[in-house]
Structure formats: structure tokens, C-alpha cells
Amino acid sequence: MRTAVVGHVEWIRFATVERMPGAGEIIHARESWLEPAGGGAVAAAELLRLTDNCDFFVAVGNDETGRAAREALEALGLRVHVAVRDKPQRLGFTYLEANGERTITLVGEKLHPYGSDPLPWGELAEIDAVYFSAGDGDALRAARQARVLVATARELPTLADAGVELDALVHSSTDPEETYSPGQLEPEPKLVVTTRGREGGSYRAGGHAGSFDAAPPPGPVADAYGAGDCFAAGLAFSLARGDGVEEALAFAAACGAEAMTRRGVAGN
Q1: What is the phi/psi pair of residue 121, to 5°?
Q2: Residues 264, 268: Cα–Cα separation, whole Å
Q3: What pLDDT is attached to residue 207?
Q4: What is the DSSP letter of 264?
Q5: Cα angle 97, 196, 211; round to 5
Q6: Cα(4)–Cα(131) distance, rounded to whole angstroms?
Q7: pLDDT at residue 172 above 80?
Q8: What is the pLDDT of residue 35?
Q9: Does position 49 have pLDDT exceeding 70, yes or no?
Q10: How many other C-beta atoms can be found within 10 angstroms of the C-beta atom of residue 7?
């Protein structure tokens, strides 16, 4: 199976702390590291784990941090197709608390690929599963060449503008930036998944609706960063290999749960 992500990357500083600091308080991190992150990078790393291959269509800044992000993505083993923007790379800082909770601060504009960028968009016709986390309407239309296309509701305006049929749309009931209501996209996605974190979630496929359970983490919880993006990547993979909706959701939930046992994106 061949997989791909059309999306974004953020250069994130992670810091593990016992708890979030209060106002005006100084705390000391137990450890800290930098790596390429953000929903696109997380999903690409997860698809790489599942299939041993993933093409990543992405944009980076024209500064040293952008170059570092690209090199780190390639070092993971991803096949990276990069558009360089005449802008600084988006940065971020993430606190990881002892209980696994993450708190994220982002700095700068989200950079994403355009369909007009000189990237090998035609290769997406040979891809089995694509996850779309960011891009313009033309990039999304190019992604639709794939056999299975899953997208996040975080990019709802772009999804509505492109007017392509999604095999699945994933949104969170707890994130105001990922809300979705029936009728906001035309055509309606074949499958709409509403996640509720550790409470599982619900789905709607055609005239059928149901719910699914969260999977228990297979080990100690390290951090919750990227669990939702790993869920979406797992869903794209499972649908592309021909699993039914309920089986695909169970597999995706297991991917999200397993992600919580890894530290950061690379799982070091």
C-alpha cells in the first residue's frame, strides 16, 4: 500500500514538566527536545510506521528552521516534496505534563502547499490512502486522485471550496476549530467521524449512525500529542485496505491509543 499526506509541518520545542506553571511561576523541565510536528507531520510519521512508506507534500519557511524541519522529516524516512515559502517557518512550544496532557502554543503563519507549486501532484493518482491536513483547493483536488481521501474539519473552508467528495471527514467535538454540521460540505463525505478523546466517538455513514469506543493505551501514557492525527492516519490506512467502517474505527482508535505511549512524534 502507498500512502501520502498533503499538509503542514511545525517546528516544535517539547518540554516535559510535572505540571503546567501557574501565572508568574517558574518551573523546570525534566527534558526538552526539538522535532518536526503538527498534524501533517504526525500523520505522515504514523503512515510511515504502518506501511513503511509515505509521501509528504508540504511547505516550509525559507529560514534555517525551515531547512531543519525538512531535513528532520527526511531523516524519519519520509519521501518529502517541499515548496519553500518566502516566509519564516512556523514554530511552537508544547508542555507535556506528567499525566500525559499536552498544551500547545503556536507562533507564526501555517504554511501549506498549493496545487500550483511544482510538486509531483500526478503521483497521487498512484496512492492508496491520503490524509489532508492543510493546503489550498487545488492541492485538495490533486489529493482526490488517490483511492481513499481522509481530511480534517480544521480545514473546512478549503474543503468546501474544493467541492470534492471525501471518503472520511474527522472532527472533534471538543475543539471549536474542528466543528462540523451536516450540509456544510457538498457533496457530503461518505463517512463523518466525531471524536471525543478518551470517550471514543460517533460516526455517520450514509443513513447509518453509530458510536465507537476509545482503545486502551497498550502501555504507560507518555503524552497525548498527536493522538488525534494518528487516529486519522490509521483510519485512512484501514479504509484503503478495505476494512468496514466499524473495523476501521476500531483500528484508528488503537493507533491513537498507541500514539499516547510514545514520546513526541518520532517516538524516541
Answers
A1: -60, -30
A2: 7
A3: 84
A4: T
A5: 145
A6: 7
A7: yes
A8: 96
A9: yes
A10: 31
